[in-house]
Write a structure and sequence with these properties.
- The chain has three helices and eleven strands.
- It is of the alpha+beta class.
- The chain folds into two domains: about 110 residues, predicted glycosyltransferase like domains (Thrombin, subunit H, Beta Barrel); about 55 residues.
- The strands form three sheets. Strands 1-2-3-6-5-4 form a six-stranded antiparallel beta barrel.
- The chain is elongated, with a radius of gyration of 19 Å.
């Protein structure tokens, strides 16, 4: 099976410089981003990262090719694959990462998640498809529509209490 057949989201090809860090926010290495999707990036850098390790990718200039909010400059990711590239004269590694969240800057601690889980059906939903209701509940659009169809009253209140109890 071709890897592109297994991808959940289409990839956008781009060539742009990025920086990536291995755990520490003080030490970043240059890399070239080659493609991106809603939930992943592929870039080439000179420093290897272990599969499963966390890293940060600093996007110096945002591009429409990236599926991130325009004012977000840093993403947190988990390395899915890091492999040496045999066709280069110097050590280079192809690094594929799954995005975990976006942040506005290195100094910001507010991370916007890429995916959430619907508190009703437990399906994974992309952040811009989340229907947030009062409190800490996140619903997919299908469950949100179903909730809106329930008339106000004891049944709806009981359903919301049950969902909230599952979250807390």
């Amino acid at each position: 099976m071709n890897p592109t057949d297994r991808r959940r989201w289409p990839r956008t090809t781009c060539e742009m410089p990025v920086m990536y860090g291995l755990g520490s926010k003080e030490q970043f290495y240059p890399a070239t981003l080659h493609n991106s999707s809603i939930d992943g990036l592929y870039f080439v850098g000179n420093n290897a990262i272990g599969d499963g390790d966390g890293c940060q990718i600093l996007i110096e200039k945002n591009s429409e090719a990236l599926s991130c909010p325009p004012d977000f400059k840093l993403c947190y990711a988990t390395v899915k694959r890091c492999a040496p590239l045999p066709t280069t004269s110097h050590p280079a590694f192809g690094i594929g990462v799954q995005l975990d969240g976006w942040c506005r800057s290195l100094d910001s601690s507010e991370i916007q998640k890429i995916f959430y889980r619907c508190d009703a059906c437990e399906d994974e939903i992309i952040s811009f498809d989340v229907c947030k209701i009062e409190g800490p509940l996140f619903l997919c659009s299908k469950c949100y529509r179903r909730l809106q169809e329930i008339p106000d009253g004891p049944l709806k209140e009981s359903y919301l209490r049950c969902l909230l109890g599952n979250v807390i």
